[in-house]
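RECORD TYPE: inverse folding
INPUT: structure tokens
STRUCTURE:
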């Protein structure tokens, strides 16, 4: 059997080292060229919306609705309010105080936001206009500086008396604020210089609208069952929209989402996948936080749309 000479071997090795990047570059440019020419790309099959959820106050309990108004800044009334530290004005979430999930919210027939502490004795609650007028805000709130994820904003701060029982319940002095007029521009992949236009949101963490896939939570629950952990509800991830889905985690490939039918629809950019966090570890029914799950097992799945 003939043995290749060392010189010939080095020739082919160098060709592979320098030639492979050129081939990959050519394939990538070809794919980009096809996209630029508008050639048809693979599109996931349509799916159904199975749940719509609103969370008026950031990190407090939300509720299901049959329909909702979709604005550029997210669902109407979603994350429109948040609790802040009374002294510093920094936002407060389940990450610091898991008991926030025991604060219930609802929209009444009179278009008011009803806020209550579950199972409190005596009952603790208040109602405020869900869509307050400028005049009402002027007479009942104070425009103040607040902060969320390092971003300075303005918010209409309600009176100390209104939230005093909630401060006692949460074990810290807090105040309730309503989103102020200052625009909160999207950052990251949603920043104007990357997205090509300016988009805004209210008090959500990263994006105006959060979508979860039912198939993904089913797959996650399968993993939890295998290690002897009880199944969890998709509510832990606090999504606005839950879709039926085709397969687990296929939402990781989404670049845009088209919501609606043939007659009328809205196309929304998928600017980010939610980062892992400790919020899903908190049982929304009891406010008890698990030390590990599902945070730990989610690291087995490299990416997710949840949170």
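DESIGNED SEQUENCE:
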């Amino acid at each position: 059997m003939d043995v290749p000479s060392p010189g010939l071997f080095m020739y082919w090795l160098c060709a592979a080292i320098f030639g492979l990047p050129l081939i990959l570059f050519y394939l990538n440019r070809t794919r980009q060229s096809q996209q630029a020419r508008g050639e048809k790309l693979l599109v996931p099959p349509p799916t159904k919306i199975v749940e719509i959820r609103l969370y008026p106050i950031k990190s407090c309990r939300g509720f299901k609705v049959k329909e909702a108004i979709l604005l550029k800044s997210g669902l109407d009334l979603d994350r429109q309010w948040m609790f802040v530290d009374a002294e510093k004005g920094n936002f407060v979430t389940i990450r610091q105080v898991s008991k926030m999930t025991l604060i219930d919210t609802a929209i009444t027939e009179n278009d008011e936001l009803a806020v209550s502490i579950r199972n409190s004795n005596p009952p603790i609650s208040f109602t405020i206009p869900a869509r307050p007028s400028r005049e009402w805000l002027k007479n009942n709130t104070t425009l103040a500086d607040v902060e969320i994820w390092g971003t300075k904003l303005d918010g209409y701060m309600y009176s100390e008396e209104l939230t005093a029982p909630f401060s006692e319940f949460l074990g810290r002095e807090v105040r309730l604020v309503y989103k102020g007029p200052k625009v909160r521009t999207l950052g990251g992949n949603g920043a104007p210089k990357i997205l090509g236009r300016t988009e805004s949101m209210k008090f959500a963490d990263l994006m105006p609208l959060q979508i979860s896939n039912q198939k993904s939570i089913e797959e996650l629950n399968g993993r939890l069952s295998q290690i002897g952990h009880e199944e969890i509800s998709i509510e832990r991830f606090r999504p606005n929209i839950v879709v039926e889905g085709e397969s687990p985690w296929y939402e990781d490939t989404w670049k845009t989402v088209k919501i609606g039918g043939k007659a009328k629809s809205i196309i929304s950019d998928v600017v980010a996948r939610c980062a892992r966090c400790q919020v899903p570890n908190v049982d929304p029914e009891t406010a008890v936080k698990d030390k590990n799950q599902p945070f730990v097992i989610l690291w087995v799945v490299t990416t997710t749309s949840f949170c």
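NOTES: Residues 90 and 147 are 5 Å apart (CA to CA).
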